[in-house]
Structures are given as structure tokens and as C-alpha cells.
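Re: weekly structure request thread

Next one in the queue (311 aa):
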Amino acid sequence: MAYVSRRVFLQRTALVGAGLKIGLLSPELTRAATAKKMSIARYKSSPAERDGVAEEAQRLTRKVISDLGGMSRFVSKGNVVWVKPNIAWDRKPEQAGNTNPDVVATIVKMCYEAGAKQVVVGDNPCNAGERTYPNSGIRPAAEKAGARVTYLDQRKFKKMSLKGKALKEWEMYTEMIEADTFINVPIAKHHSLAGATLGMKNLMGVCGGARSRFHQDLTNVLPDLATFIKPKLVVLDAIRVLPVNGPQGGNLDDVKRKDTMVAGVDQVAIDAFGATLLDMEPKKIGHIVEAQARGLGTMDYKSLSPVECLV
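Done, posted below.
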């Protein structure tokens, strides 16, 4: 028998032990340990404003999610999924006040393809939902894709314990909180108080009550919400953005095409990257800095080695 030193024996034993631990992990946990946290997809060139734009939006959305491992990473067979776009304002899609409707519809389709039992789309808008849902284009696009598009029922808001710095408790929409999978689908926009409306800001649409009170301390309110809600997936629409005069917009001269989609599981990284698309520095946006300080993610999105591609 060949002689093996104690040092080599211990090294081999450690390697075998590590292998056993990996082998004991479920396929889901193994994939989660190695899966990418962020992906970025861009157009090779900006498409003309014509009928093909919808197809381009669909392609970008599918690509950015597939580069994370596909929708089946986030949605399991039989899941009830809540897709939460920004449907806050009575604006047309080209005004970039709300999430691109073709992005929302594509996500709905991908959820069903992954085996979702039901996909629900809804928001607590600032303008009346009876105007924002159809005029944004989101309602018809999402319904055509098979979603149940719903106006929020005020009776379904329930006071919940958030245990945050600014929000100890607040009225939250129970169906969104209780959904098997919650997908946050914001659009990148300027905001006069928060600096930027991105992923964490979009979570305000889960809340009821006097949300105007949030504006007194958005630096802490938004990380409080991000800590409590924790979306399984964030998909940031930056096909058209509003770098100025947000969050409502209205003037087409304020809209800029960035032809970019971002998706991932790190809320802070996605918001930080989104800020750069608005020509802002993440370190100057209070809620992004605070969220990183709380350990919710990293502003250094490059450290995540995001998958980047041109389509």
C-alpha cells in the first residue's frame, strides 16, 4: 500500500467532504449557488418608432431573463404570480410615465410558460386606475397575454408590521404580499424628491394609506419597503426613460431612448445601474446608499459580473 502523509490524507478528506456536501444540495440550491444575480440587454441600434418596436421590447425582455437562467428559476409550476409594473400615471406608453406594456405582457407570458397557475397584474396608482390602466397600454397588453388585471380593492389592504426605521407598520396589499412569486417591473425615471424612481420606489404601489407621508423620509422608507417585500425578481424597463421632469412626465421632449433592459435579484445593484441610465450617481441617491448600508445589496453592480449582451 502506498504511503500517504497525514497532511495529504486530511486534504483529500476535506475535498471528499466538500463533494458530499455539494452532492447533498438539491438541484435548485445548486443552481441558486451558481446563478447570475444580474443581466443587462441592449439593442445594437435604436429601433425606429414603428410597428416593430413591440417585437423588439419582447426580445429584450426575454433575453434579459433567459440570461439569468430563465423564468423557471423564479416561478414554479402552480405558482400564483403578482407582476407589479408602474401604472401610476395617466400617460401613453411613448411618454415613459409607466412601464412599457410590451415588457409587462412578455413577463406574463413567460410566467405561464414556466407553469404559473395564475398571473395577476396590478398597482396602486397616483391617478385614477380607470384612466391609467387602459391609457398606459398595460391593461390590454397584459390581458391579451392571459393575466388577471385588477384594480386594487381597498378592503384588502391590511396593517402589517414592517419593523423599519421609518415604517414600523403600514397598510400593505395582502394579495401582493401573499403571492407565491412577486415580480417588480419598474421603469427608470427622474423623481424630484427621491432623485430617481426605480425598483425600490416602485414598491410604494404595494402600500395603501396616506403615502404622501413617505415623502418626509424616502431615504429610509424605501429601504424599509425593500426589506419587507423582497421581490424574487426585478426587471427594470429602460427602453424609454425620463431623465428629467419625472415621475409624471408628459412632454415627449423629456423622453430619452436607452434601449436597455436590466433584470436580477439584487435590488440595490439594479437601482444603482438604473441611476446611471438617468445620468445620476448612485452614491448621491439617499435610499440607494441606505439600502446598501443595510445589507440589501451592493451599489457596485459591476462586482456581480452581470451578463451583458446586445440583441
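The chain has a mean pLDDT of 91. The chain has one domain: 38-310.
Next request, please.
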